[in-house]
Amino acid sequence: MFHYPLLLATAAEPTGAFAAVQNVFDRGGFAMWLLLVCSLVAVAITIERLIVFGRNRRATALGGPAVDQVLTLTAAGRFADAEALACQEPGMACRVLTQGLHHRDLGLHDSLEEAANAELDYLRRGLAVLDTIITLGPLLGILGTVTGIIRSFHVLGNDVVDPTVVTGGIAEALLTTAAGLAVAIFALIPFNFFVAKVRQRARTLEHTIHQFEMAFGKGKQKAED
């Protein structure tokens, strides 16, 4: 009869993997919860950017033939036809060329550069947050470790005879350092992948813009003649 409340309390306690994870977070302290938030944000950004880059790759593949046609029309001096074709096709290059053709009388190079920067800024969105998590993760881990060691030495200052109490507290405090490094490593891999993809897209746009400016120069001479 007297053991019935104890049995209820035991049954209410979490068991299995969830209990192990909760135990780790309880021992790691507040830093573990901050690292959990960082990891969730990193996962969300990684998934969202993968979707964006995947759509961008498909749109670029679909709009590739149209870019060649736009360059051909531009070189022939048919600027209106080139603009009409570019604005109907998907892909970054077509959108950039559309802006350049639309503002060709006001400033071709500046309009192309501004449109290209806008496209690349869209691809870079969220990467600054990933970069911050890469730096912040280890720092939060070290902060949790330091606070854990401070608590351990505080226990030692209370005339604790058993040294395993202190060493156990230090070992538990090191959990936050390991967690912070794990979060940083997880965020570093997709960050470098996305940065490489942005640089690749930038080089492709730069090459396309250079071809377009040459084609525009030829087309302008034909239009004047």
Tell me about this structure.
With 225 residues, the chain is mostly helical. The chain is 88% helix and 0% strand. The protein is built from 8 helices and no strands. The protein has helices at residues 4-12, 16-28, 30-75, 79-86, 92-102, 104-124, 127-156, 164-224. α2 crosses α3 and α3 packs parallel to α8 (164-224). The longest helix has 61 residues, at 164-224. Residues 1-14 have low confidence and may be disordered.
Question: What is the gist of this entry?
Answer:
This protein is mostly helical and 225 residues long. The chain has one domain (32-218). The chain has helices spanning 4-12, 16-28, 30-75, 79-86, 92-102, 104-124, 127-156, 164-224.
Give the domain tally: 1
Task: Tell me the radius of gyration.
Answer: 29 Å
Coarse structural class: mainly alpha
Largest sheet: none
Poorly predicted regions are 1-14
Q: Report the end-to-end length measured between terminal Cα atoms.
A: 106 Å
Level of helix content? over 70%
Order of H and E elements: HHHHHHHH
Share of residues in strands: under 5%
How many separate helices?
8
Average pLDDT taken over every residue: 82
Tell me the number of strands.
Answer: 0
Assign an overall shape.
rod-shaped
Question: Which tags fit this structure?
Answer:
225 residues, mainly alpha, 88% helix, rod-shaped, disordered N terminus
Write the layout of secondary structure elements.
Blueprint: H1 4-12, H2 16-28, H3 30-75, H4 79-86, H5 92-102, H6 104-124, H7 127-156, H8 164-224
